[in-house]
Amino acid sequence: APARALKPQGAVLVNSSRYTPNRIRELLQLPAETAVFVVPASRIARELQLGSFFNMVMLGAMHRVCPLVDFDAALEFYKGNVPSPKDANLEAIRRGYAETTDRELVIEEQPVMNELEEEFFQWRPEEESFELAMLRSLENPRGM
Question: In this structure, what CATH number is given to the domain that contains residue 45?
Answer without folding.
Answer: 3.40.920.10
